Amino acid sequence: MKRASVLVALAILFAGGAGLLTAQKNAGAARLASFIPRTAGPWLSEADRVYDAATIFQYLDGAGEVYRSYNMKLLVSRRFHKDGRPDIVVDLFDMGSSDDAFGVFTHDLDGEDAGTGQGSNYKAGLLSFWKGRYFVSVQTEEETKDTKPAVLDLGRKIAAAIPESGPAPKLVSYLPPEGLVGGRVCYFHNYSILNYHFFVADTDILLLGGKASAVLASYKTAGGESRLLVVAYPDEAQAVRAYESFGRNYMPDAKKPGLVRTEDKTWTASARAGDVVIVVFNAGSDEFAMTQLAAVQELMAAAGPVRK
Amino acid sequence: MSAKSITRRDFLKTASVAPLAGALVPGLRSGQAAPEPRVRVVLVRDPAALDASGRPDGEAIGRMLDEAVAALVGEKDAAGAWKRIVRPDDVVGIKTNVWDKLPTTAAVEQAIKRAVMSAGVPEARLAIDDRGVLRNPIFQNATALINARPARTHHWAGMGSCIKNYIQFVPRPSDYHGDTCADLASIWSLPSVKGKTRLNILVMLTPLFHGIGPSSYSQEFTWPYRGLIVSRDPVAADATGLRVLLAKRREHFGEDRPLPMTPHHIFLADTRHHLGVSTEDRIEFVKLGWREGALI
User: Fold this and answer.
1) Is the ipTM of this complex over 0.95?
2) What's the gap in Å between the CA of B192 and the closest CA on chain A?
3) Segment B231-266, tens digit of pLDDT
């Protein structure tokens, strides 16, 4: 009897917990939905669809993994329809933090700046932007003379409705400004996303593991284009392991620790500072590579740690 | 890292990172298997595959499919060819793909259905399904599967492939998303599908060669290729379709533009899972019909 009572109590607690989660999800979805206009000129909206990290595949198939890798919390998708014209779809993601809203925005930086939110681009009927902890996509099924302005206008209205802004990831402040190619900075947590932007290895030799945070940037140099990767790990022990793993897998032939001339006659250099690992790829000279490593460490010292 | 990783430097040794063009080159892996017999892949194209408004034309597609299957199995006529694909006592599941932006299309589904019935399989013993295959009694009891899906770039797996089309045969598809879907081919060893696939049809009517936005789709990046790729080997069909997508990307962008997510599941299906062959030297490629703009 006592055991049955405990089971009943647990069931009530579980149901209550689930109910609370549902209530939270509904409230979150209502908040997201409130940022999206009901109409877009002559286009009228259809019923919203709501997804979380567990159900995102129902909507985006395996591509949902991209958003999951950036810790997405909730997505409200609203379709706008007008007979005789291409539909427009708004996908508004709550990414949980401005770091990850910025990050998922940087996943695809192609396009022209649309001047919306805290960073935006437009291409082929697709407007993407981030603001605060939200990432927003407004896409028409076909770009026409009517749909392009409608997409851009819808984006501006959504951006205006989102009340808060948010900072870009602190890691971005570790990037030396000199030579930095603007608009090409990517932020991520996953080695598949790293490889998407810049192939390093077919396995996770930097031990990003989804928990580390990384920023990848391009630098124009006299010798070409160099890449700078800065990774912050959850703690120093993980950074130590990652630094060793990278050295063992990527530069086993290094004559000096953390510095190797690669097969294309460029230089790769790496360093660790506390819980951060820094790697310079494709440097035109060993001097430039080492200068970049030192510059990052100076900026780190000035800006303070990523994790307090 | 227990096994040796393939790094950027391995590509630099071979030439440049350009060979990454959408794939991790299988030859970089040590322990290559000995040469195997070549597998046949048929590409058939017809301007009439799409009508004036771009809709699939069922009659033309039926004709293309018949020609391709006849060439695949080496029969002169379609009736004899389809009898080598399915037997009258088979229970046939036609695995389609219902993704709303680029589905297999009813025209292709019905062309397969008609052909299977022409080989003597009664309608009651065949079904067309995608997301319901695990609950579908015909698929549960299938003795033969025909796999048909459109070719497209994919924002996680690199390419929406024939191999990937079987992901609905597992209860939790996301279990196979690791390492950007590297081991999708392992699904083909599950009892529900193992050894049952008689034909793979990679639908190339309006392939997607570049994806943008959350859904990784824009009509702007599809084109009327008006083709079908047909093979008994899903890996060879996919590897051939991938060549077309990469060639189209090269044509459109004016430079080698690798698929950002490498479709290495296709090559691992060959080298790790031995499901089929992925390299051109092991594929007997047969082209039928319209040649203009074939790209490969």
Assistant:
1) no
2) 22
3) 999 999 999 999 999 999 999 999 988 888 889 999
Phi, psi of B188 (to 5 degrees): -70, -5
Closest CA to B280 of B266, B259, B261: B266
Q: From chain B, which residues contact A within 8 Å (Cβ)?
A: 1, 3, 5-9, 11-13, 16-17, 20, 24, 99, 154-157, 164, 167, 173-174, 177, 179-181, 211-216, 218-221, 260-262, 264
Half-sphere CA count of B76, side-chain side, radius 13 A: 0
- Domain residue limits, chain B: 37-289
Across the interface, which of A123, A201, A281 has its CB nearest the CB of B5? Answer: A201
Nearest-Å Rg of the Cα atoms of chain B is 18
Calculate the average pLDDT of chain B: 92
Beta bridge partners of A99: none
Instruction: Give residue-wise pLDDT tens across range A169-187.
Output: 999 999 999 999 988 899 9
DSSP B196-234: TEEEEEEEEEEEE----TTTT--GGGB----EEEEES-H
Q: Give the Cα separation of A198 and A215 in Å (integer).
A: 12
Closest chain A residue to the Cα of B258, Cα to Cα? A196
Ranges under pLDDT 70 in chain A: 1-21, 308
* Residues belonging to chain B: 296
Q: Determine the residue of chain B that is closest to A265 in CA distance.
A: B12
By Cβ distance, the residue of B167, B174, B220 closest to A124 is B220
Residue numbers in B near A263 (CB within 8 A): 9, 12-13
Question: What's the gap between Cα B135 and its chain centre?
Answer: 24
Q: Is the pTM of this model over 0.80?
A: yes
Tell me the domains of chain A and their CATH numbers.
Answer: 26-161 (3.40.1000.70), 170-303 (3.40.1000)
* Binary contact (A62, B221; C-beta < 8 A): no
CA dihedral sign, ordered B253, B258, B263, B269: positive
Residue A119: Cβ within 10 Å count: 20
